[in-house]
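Build the 3D complex.
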Amino acid sequence: MLQQTQVKTVIPYFNNFTKKFKNLRALSRSNNKEILKMWEGLGYYRRARNLLSCSRQLVNIYKLKLPNTLMEIKKLPGIGDYTGNALLGLVYNKPTIAVDGNVKRVFSRYLNKQAVKINFEKFIMKNKKKLFYSKRNADFVEALMEFGALVCKPKDPNCVSCCLNKTCKYFKSTDKIKNFSKKMIIDKNYDVFCYINTKKQIALTKQNQVSFLRNFNLPTMKESYGFSNNKNWIFLKNYKNNISNLKLNINLYYKFSNKIPATHNWYSLKNNKEFIPNFTKKILRQVSTLF
Ligand code: SF4
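Done.
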């Protein structure tokens, strides 16, 4: 849940989730519909689906025992190098580091070298004895994450009170490395076409090719490249919607119709029991202003 998401946002979701699913077996008995509904509003929905299939594999194939090698653990859905290493360290106390943006920044500052110029795998291997000297590897994985979040922060690192400042090249240097790779922002324009009816319903489809919400409930959407010929539709509103590094410029259109494409189904503009992603909820709110 914490990937790309702030702790304060995650807390209520985490509490609900762990209250509902007390253990892996309970989670494995759930289904996509239920999990996605509980995840609604948290974004990055692939995480929820992966978590469910991961729990199923752990129950059915691995008999509730987490694999203890990186190669094996990475076969589980949604587990890559980062999560795999974090789990091996936290669960099995293995000498590993979960290398994310925070950890890269810490090492990069410590060496006063741009992150792109560091081979982190090699660096960790080479410095194994210095990094994993205490045998408290699980604590080390956790500590490094916290260190990046609380001490060697993205902006204004607490160098003066930092326990590494005697050897840190960034702190000592008069020529400090500067910018840490910012996320590349991608601008996209979309025309969104909403079929609505007088029962205050909107037609949504899961059969869409929108990369960031593929197979989730959306109205018909088309990426637009300047000129759009939407003469059979009524323009409702233009607004912006940012999703991660995507900056979306949305032109919203609607028409009242009882006929909808075979791929679409009617959904109420309010109180949907089914999971609706935030992106679509925003559209629903805009369309509701018509009634
Ligand atoms: S001295 Fe400053 S830059 Fe170096 S590791 Fe500590 S907080 Fe980061």
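The mean pLDDT is 91.
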